[in-house]
Amino acid sequence: MRQETDPRDGDIIEYLDKGRLRLAVILAEDGNKKRYRAVSEDSRELVLTLRQVTHALPKQLSPTLSHEQLGQELKSIRLRAEQLVVNVDASDLWELLVGEMEEVELSTLADLAHGEVSAVTCLSTASLLRDDTIYFKHRKDSLYEPRNHEQVEALKAELAVQERRTQSREVFLETLVKALDSTPDERGTEFDKVMTDPLLRRYMEMLLHLAVAGENATDTGEACELLEDLQARLDHRLKGHASRKAFHLLVELGHFSPDENLFLLRHQLPAEFDDVLEEAAAALVAEGPRRLREALELGARRDLTSLNLFSIDDLETQDVDDALSITRIPWGWELGVHIADPCFHIAFDSPLELEARRRGATLYLPDRRIPMFPVSLSEGLFSLQVGELRPALSFLFELDDNLNVGASSIVQSLVRVSHKLDYEGVEDRMEHGSSALDDDLRKIYEVADLLAHQRMADGAVSIDIPECKVRVDDDGRIWVRQRGRDAVSRMMVSELMVLANACAADFCVEHHLPAPFRTQEEPDPPMDERDFEHIPEGLALAFALRRCMPPAITSTHAGPHFSLGLPAYTQATSPIRRYQDLLTHFLLHGFLREGRVTIDGESAHLALSQADAAMQSIRNVERDSGRYWMLRYLEETLDQVREATVVEYVEKRGDAALVVVHDTMMRVRVSLTRRVPLGEVVQVVVNQVNPRADTVAFRLAT
Fold first, then answer.
1. Which residues contact residue 20 at a Cβ distance below 8 angstroms, ignoring those fewer than 6 apart?
2. Does this model's pTM top 0.90?
3. Both 90 and 134 in a single domain?
4. Domain boundary residue among 107, 132, 147?
5. CA dist., res. 477 & res. 493, Å (int)
6. What are the mean pLDDT values of the chain's consecutive 10-residue runs (702 residues total)?
7. For residue 247, what are the domain limits?
8. What's 43's DSSP letter?
């Protein structure tokens, strides 16, 4: 049975075609499945479904007319309707009907608007109400509902906001085009102009988010549309996917450098300290010398200023955490590992401590360093600078004449460093020097070497993988420096830091302090059940050993550390640079001062958890930034033939291997011409590299 809304032969109807409304004349029903043969405005015959039909107009045309005649008649109706629209305002119709009728027919609205009901007036009125939806809501078929006053005002307000946004969007696009057509110096001014206007800044922040988040960006539909509109005005000069286009745009505007660290922005790690923290640091710096003199005069801390202390760091290091000493005593030697003590100056839960907790650690990047404390503290008051009176936590070890470690103690001290040494200088001194300081260095090396052998005998595992660092100098030059972990001076310092950290761990275990202990389980299966005999010494064996090692875990519960060969281990030797070490200092500091646990387990666990969240971001940013600059280095040395060691095969059969490239220590996949033994050295070259896309491929050198 035909419904009242079903079209009839000859009816003029509007229908939806790919989102657009068009006119057609119904010729006849096409079977009994609610399908209709019709002729469109362009005189084409088509088949429509009932779902496509929006409504019928109050006029019929003879289906017997030719398709061309029907099309011409429809075009005439459309043209006359468009001419009528400009003569009517939807608000006038609404004023007549609001509060009077809940629903009104299109024909009634057409009669009110134009004084007659016809196909032309109904089409004109329907078009008017489609373009202006503030006053009437289209219910179904040809029925409309006048909105109430509150709804109209709300829609007007919403429309006003949309119009302002449209205007500001246009201004934003025009401003960017103008900026990009100006000189580089002028672009900064235009960018600042955008960022000071809240409406314009909203669009720039969209593009910033898209550029920073990269391919993982979400909710970027509007930003992508903005870019496409801008692209059209810039003759499509921005290349790549949407996030890459946004990045290149910000580079052209001068807001980003070509090597902008997006990883730092992505993880939202703070680069600067706010004024309150800087003022707090300045107050400490101003009061620090006086407080230290008073502590020395009152004997509040052990006076070790007479010891010959020396620090050993990289040449550029200014935030000096540790210094060493060795002194002859009647029954042997006293070895001192002296660690800077920020806890003398700041309290747990103080603003500066909370900020250090929030940051987690000093962030070391190839082109910059972002400290955990303000520079005036990390490189000044807290740092063990030469000749300056400083508070320290001193780990003192008694050695017999055979250099075996006996009694140990941890004391709050005052020290004064006499010498600032660097690793290369220490190597030279130990080999060629003849001064008393050089003799001390050689003696300390003997101690460190003995300690290392003792740990190995206790089950420690030494994995010798050279460390490779990439640095960018002030002139933008990229330097890659490789240093072996077994270098004499580095091994010496590292071993003594392990000794001090193990001493701190034993103290915390003995006195039930909830320190951030580092634990590592034994590999499963155990090392002695694994077959390493077929792997030669060198990089292949080192990487095989590293793959076996379970990750170390930090918690407030002590336990063995397998690869170090120690029953308990914590970190206490870098309190200026790492929050875990600072927390250990607060625990030791409190117990040494008051003889009790001053930070309970719950508070320590909370502090550690907060710092760990930041530490994860820091590790990611350091890793990704280092890799970016390493790829930039490869980009600059593209044609260089490099040596690489085969360390692993991807599958049991086949020639796809993982190799370690010697000058960068990058582990990459390479297809070999034949399957060579693990440990064999091959020559490779970079096939392609894209630092921004984080892609690199190597191939065998020919």
1. none
2. no
3. yes
4. 147
5. 30
6. 66 88 91 85 92 88 93 94 87 90 91 92 91 89 90 93 86 87 80 80 89 79 88 82 90 91 94 96 97 94 97 93 97 97 97 98 96 98 98 98 96 98 93 95 97 94 89 94 76 97 98 97 82 87 91 95 97 98 97 95 96 94 97 95 94 87 95 92 96 94 86
7. 151-258
8. S
